[in-house]
Amino acid sequence: MKDQGYIPGLGASNVDELKEKLKDELEKTRKELNKIDPLKELEEYERKQAIEAQEKKAHENKLRKGRDPTAPEKPYKTLSSFVDVEKISELPLKELEYIWRARFAKHDNALISLVPGEVFDKLYKNARENPTFVLPLPREGEGFDLHYIQWQFVGPNTVHCMFTTLMEFKVHKEFARPHTSIIFHTELKDDKDVVLMNGTVEKDAAVKLPESQLLLLNVQRFYGVLAETEASKRRLQLLKDFTSGSSNFTVEALLAEAQSLEN
């Protein structure tokens, strides 16, 4: 006759023994259930602000069409698409910067910078580990609009960082059109210890140049390229929490850190 406490098929004689046997598996399941979907958390935030969003100007509310999924991918641009790399590599850094900025001087919607090598190394490391994120932009009046940040490592010397409204990303997914596209060029990093950056804000986007500049500033703040302060550590941890799906990531914490004047 079988032991009355025996649990068939599970190899345990009683409930306590079964609990001990499945302890590790139960703990793993608990952690999985505790994970959150950051995008769903953000959807809830945006739902609560839907009434306010209806009061925005019509051109700010309209969704742009996504990219044509049947269209062939265009080749990405390298540094040589913009300047003669061999010639500028021979210039002193000050002259190089002058030529780089002059190259885009007539573009009203351009973002231009020279990034120190050490700063780019931090940015690159954290972007590799956290290739997507969300950042808020203050809305005219009250509230915030959320923007999806996406990194692409398209070539040995070329890194893209793209900003898309979260609303458009949710509708068009991978075919959403970024309103701001930024390119980092590393061709001169070894010789000049600098990475050239250029970006463009789309003319038909609701977002304007100053707003994209603010997003870019917060990319730097959350991706840990500023001073090693407590505020910087908190932002970097929030980025990591978003990537891992940790319940520590909240929209409230994101808004607080994005608005904070602490560096």
TrEMBL record:
GO terms for biological process: mitochondrial proton-transporting ATP synthase complex assembly. Pfam families: ATP11. It comes from the Eukaryota. Signal peptide: none annotated. GO terms for cellular component: mitochondrion. It is found in: Mitochondrion. The keyword Glycoprotein does not apply. Keywords: Mitochondrion, Transit peptide. Residues 50-75 are annotated as: Disordered. PANTHER family: ATP SYNTHASE MITOCHONDRIAL F1 COMPLEX ASSEMBLY FACTOR 1, CHAPERONE ATP11. Belongs to the ATP11 family. This is ATP synthase mitochondrial F1 complex assembly factor 1. It comes from Wickerhamomyces ciferrii (strain ATCC 14091 / BCRC 22168 / CBS 111 / JCM 3599 / NBRC 0793 / NRRL Y-1031 F-60-10).
